[in-house]
Design brief:
The chain contains 27 helices and 30 strands. The protein is an alpha/beta fold. Helix 9 runs parallel beside helix 24, helix 14 packs antiparallel against helix 16 and helix 14 packs across helix 17. The longest helix is centred in the N-terminal third of the chain and has 14 residues. The C terminus is likely disordered.
Length: 796
């Protein structure tokens, strides 16, 4: 969705250069926009101006002029600013000399050397002597936790660490302790950080401008390292990471401020999760089952065996499960292999029941199993956030950061419905802790309150399914639901009013004039429950209040794996080609046949493989159907692309129970997990830092994944395995790089048209990349419960 806003512009002069910026911009931000460097120590993107370091001092000319802190002073029309006048430079040198009175001069051994803001500014301002020097005060390292150290005599008390912990991470695990010369950074009462609310996100280390807070796992200097910008593979927020490595080993992950959907901020998984990539238990060779044992095998021999066996199981005897942790290109090739080589539509994602329930609810409501809006709208338009499901701080940590930020800086309101207790519950205006399975009833009771108070504004043209749901709300009187669940009825009423009014409360304005409210839900990560009723109720609530099709509203569904959305987009579903084009659509089927079937070579028949002449026209089996078909003996062979790292979501126990019935099972995985133990052939898979391609995150944002380090041993990316097996069956699938696969996707998949790796080098894009109003049959289908004018998030 394109977010538009009107802002008054202000023109000022900086060092004689005319600069125009929006009203409310600080001088420091105006300088950055103009490419003029102003040194700073306490300024941090997304945090409010602090003004404690004074190193960003600039001079304003005129009667209202003088030396001011540029990070806190806002621009005015006609203002004249000098950033490097003699008075400014003298002031900065004095401030630096004051900092250096007690600051440790241990740069050669400090982890921050080479990227220390204080070191850089000392050199920049030629501070080579200090008339105020005296014997330095020093203290030993304080071990705050197993990953974080603190050095008091390097600290400049800028409070960036404590502010980011409070205002963005939302946990307040560390604070400024004591006052004056005895001030230091640490947790309350000197406890270990792990014993408090600390999430070990490492953001305190990341924002520290000096070497006061350091990474206990890191012991190198930045000039010794190569860097690669890529995307995190551990959840579907899709954070940009700066991976620093040398000699084929990842040494640490750092931060690219104002880059990517995360603006440089990361969580524990993003900061420390690279340990999974170089874990000693990684699979680095192929294995063949011989009896009850696995025997290492040369990779070529294993692939030959896979091709020879799969040749016997073509058609509906075969099924494939795609990994939602693999790239778009890899998942596209796997579904192409399943349909064009194996001749079946039995393809699905390796998913949990909760993930599928959320996807089904989204499809029923909006016509596509997708989030309707962008997380970035929390910075501009969203004024109330309804957060539903398991702890969002664990399931989508960086997504939760924007909730805290919006509360702090935009006065947005928060309503939480969750059985878990996490920091946002304590800060929210309303926290409802429902009993197991009661989420749907509480959401429907909120909808009933909204109807009764005249705050409903459903989109025109809603279908019978939506009308039936509205009629059913007669059974969800808030008093009745409160009595059944033990929840205070006033909490339900207040939550409903806050959501319906965008956090403003009832103030007499027309219902359509209230600000937007967004739903952030993590029901896809729930275990053991049927979450579809709650997911459907949330979608209906958004439709009822007119929050679909408007900036700052909608539903954002986090379903866990890094590329769950991308795997779905790429057609890893039994009833749809890539881009949600129905299998039954003859025109779509013909387009894919024209692109895929000519790849059959003359060698296929020589190898006993009959080329596919037409793609199957009937939908295949989903995961549930596959489980039943395996049990009945109809499916006899499978290819499963898995991901068994520490942060992976669970595997359906029903699937694990029936897999031993298969005659042949190939598992591609990076760890010896539960699936690999059941396989006949195990192929060692590469992880996200070891491959190129693209990911699509929870809010449909497509991002560039870059190769950083080599995979161990014989481990290979999934796209390589699929192509090698296809070629052994006589199908000429031979893309030399994932970029060629993405080019094909952009040609055949309307919602991805216009996407390319060069375009993604400039930054992420949210699909649909181009407007397809002229192609409604291929793309703009309306799902149950969705009014035509509420599908604008698709068409814009």
């Amino acid at each position: 969705m394109v977010v538009k806003s009107e802002a008054k512009l202000v023109t000022l002069s900086i060092n004689g250069q005319e600069v125009t910026v929006p009203e409310g911009t600080t001088i420091l931000q105006a300088c950055q926009a103009a490419g003029i460097e102003v040194p700073n120590l306490c300024y941090q993107p997304l945090l409010r101006p602090w003004g404690s370091c004074r190193i960003c001092t600039v001079e304003i000319l005129g009667r209202r002029g003088g030396l001011v802190e540029s990070c806190a002073a806002q621009v005015r029309e006609g203002m004249e600013v000098l950033t490097h006048s003699p008075q400014v430079l003298e002031s900065r040198r004095f401030i630096l000399q004051m900092y250096l009175v007690d600051h440790a001069l241990d740069c050669p051994t400090c982890d921050k050397s080479g990227e220390c803001y204080l070191q850089d500014n000392t050199y920049l301002h030629n501070v080579h002597s200090n008339p105020y020097r005296r014997p330095k005060l020093a203290k030993a390292y304080t071990h705050l936790s197993d990953v974080i150290d603190y050095k008091w005599d390097r600290c400049i008390m800028c409070a960036r660490c404590t502010r980011v912990c409070d205002e963005v991470i939302g946990v307040t695990a560390i604070e400024v302790l004591n006052r004056g010369l005895e001030a230091e950074i640490g947790p309350a009462y000197g406890m270990d950080l792990r014993a408090g609310t600390c999430t070990s996100c490492g953001m305190c280390i990341a924002v520290c401008p000096v070497g006061a807070l350091t990474d206990r796992r890191f012991g190198m200097h930045p000039w010794e390292l190569d860097t690669t910008e890529t995307i995190c593979g551990f959840c579907d927020v899709g954070c940009t990471l700066n991976v620093e490595h040398n000699r084929g080993i990842v040494r640490r992950v750092t931060h690219l401020w104002d880059r990517g959907v995360n603006h440089g901020y990361t969580c524990e998984r993003g900061k420390w999760g690279y340990d999974q990539v170089q874990h000693p238990d990684r699979l680095d060779t192929a294995y063949l089952r011989q009896g009850d044992e696995f025997v290492p095998s040369p990779l070529e021999a294993a692939l030959d065996h896979v091709a020879e066996q799969l040749r016997r199981y073509r058609g509906d005897q075969f099924a494939a499960l795609a990994s939602p942790d693999n790239t778009n290109e890899e998942n596209y090739l796997l579904q192409q292999f399943t349909r064009a080589v194996m001749g079946t539509n039995n393809i699905d994602r390796l998913r949990t029941r909760s993930q599928e329930a959320v996807s089904a609810a989204l499809r029923d409501a909006f016509g596509r199993p997708v989030s309707t809006n962008s997380m970035q709208e929390a910075f501009t338009d969203t004024k109330c956030m309804l957060v539903v499901g398991p702890n969002i701080g664990e399931r989508a940590p960086v997504g939760s950061y924007w909730l805290y930020w919006s509360r702090q800086y935009r006065d947005a309101k928060t309503v939480v419905i969750s059985r878990d207790h996490f920091p946002l519950c304590d800060r929210a205006e309303v926290w409802i802790k429902p009993p197991a399975g009661a989420e749907a009833a509480i959401i429907n009771a909120m909808a009933r309150v909204i109807l009764d108070t005249g705050l409903a504004r459903p989109a025109e043209g809603a279908n019978a399914g939506f009308d039936a749901w509205v009629a059913s709300l007669a059974d969800f009187a808030p008093e009745r639901v409160a009595a059944a669940t033990g929840i205070d009825v006033e909490l339900i009423r207040r939550a409903a009013i806050l959501y319906a009014t965008g956090g403003a409360g009832v103030d007499g304005r027309d219902a359509a004039e209230y600000p937007a409210s967004a739903i952030y839900q993590t029901l896809g990560s729930a275990s053991g429950d049927d979450v579809q009723p709650a997911a459907a109720a949330l979608n209906n609530l958004a439709l009822l209040t007119g929050n679909v099709g408007r900036a700052g509203g909608g539903v954002i569904a986090f379903r866990g794996p890094a590329n769950f959305q991308g795997a779905t987009d790429m057609g890893c579903e039994p009833g749809f080609f890539p881009g949600y084009q129905p299998i039954s659509d003859a025109a779509a089927r013909q387009a894919f046949e024209a692109a895929w079937l000519p790849r059959w070579s003359d060698a296929a028949e020589q190898r006993g493989v009959n080329p596919i002449r037409a793609l199957p026209a009937t939908p295949g089996l989903d995961l549930d159907g596959m489980i039943a078909a395996i049990e009945a003996g109809h499916i006899k062979a499978m290819y499963i692309a898995a991901a068994s790292h520490t942060y992976a979501h669970g595997i359906d126990e029903r699937l694990l129970a029936v897999l031993p019935r298969l005659e042949f099972l190939v598992v591609e995985d990076s760890f010896p997990g539960e699936l690999a133990k059941l396989a006949h052939v195990v192929l060692p898979g590469a992880m996200f830092l070891e491959k190129d391609g693209t990911f699509t995150n929870a809010d449909r944002t497509i991002q560039r994944l870059r190769y950083a380090v080599a995979a161990p041993g014989d481990a290979r990316p999934s796209w390589w395995f699929v192509q090698e097996i296809a070629q052994r069956l006589g199908y000429d699938l031979n893309h030399p790089h994932p970029s060629f696969v993405l080019e094909e996707i952009a040609r055949l998949v309307p919602i991805y048209r216009g996407v390319s790796l060069p375009r993604l080098e400039r930054g992420p894009v949210q699909w649909p990349v181009r407007s397809f109003a002229a192609e409604p049959a291929a793309f703009l289908e309306i799902g149950d419960g969705l009014a035509p004018d509420a599908v604008r998030f698709v068409a814009d």
